[in-house]
Design a protein that fits this description.
- By secondary structure, this protein is mainly alpha-helical.
- It is globular, with a radius of gyration of 20 Å.
- It has a single domain, classed as Four Helix Bundle (Hemerythrin (Met), subunit A), CATH 1.20.120.1760.
Length: about 280
Amino acid sequence: MHVVAAQHELYRRSMKQRPAVELVCEYVFRPAAQLVVLAFRPLGVSPPAVLLANTVCGLGGAVAIMRGHLVVGALLLQAKTVLDNADGQLARATGRVSVLGRYLDSESDLLVNAVVFAALGKATGEPFLALAAFLVLTLVLSLDFNLERLYRRQRGDERDPSPPAGDGLAELLAHVYAVVYGTQDRAIEWFVERRLARLHARPEARLAYHDRATLQVLANFGLSTQLAVLGVCLAVGRPAVYCWFVVGCGVALVPLFARRELLARRSLRPSTTRR
């Protein structure tokens, strides 16, 4: 009983607290990643080593797709997802969260995504579709991150999920992060603030606009879900279907943002009382 309680506490400590749940990640990949944590923690394996392993799996999956070995690619990408979750869980469980690790995690994911979509372009014979899907996925993932950040800020949670500055290699990666991700962060925040300004949004309207339901939908467009869907498409020999799935996720952003604006407008209407 004591061992079970200790493992439960370790699992709880390793989880990242978010206002929305990515279901595939929560119920499939995170439990699988915890088995990796339980195996690696006594051995003293470092989180960056696990991160390197997940990057190698991701790049290996891309190479397999490019060579036409779709099932092998699917399996390597699922292994990449498990290890991608495991490196963060291991870092939190062992108190070894680092600035370098956070930068490497974000930038290695972007690198793997770029190479995977290049491989999909070759495998499908539709490089422009693959490029469009890559750009849409980058936008979707950035919105997931930033709308959650703005949701927290609007509710007085000052924790900033963006990595702080670092030294040495971390400092170099910080510059890359600022160019690649910082530009996206500023653009999305500018867009959100512009829409709220057009609505003349008061505090209650801002709260309504930054709603949790939108975050829940976006969380389930997250990277773990994306790679799970890609794995299924590869396993059945239909990689182009995944590219269209990503485009569909991008199209779904339109009603999501329309809903947010509708919620904000409704909150601005004067309340009426029946007599």
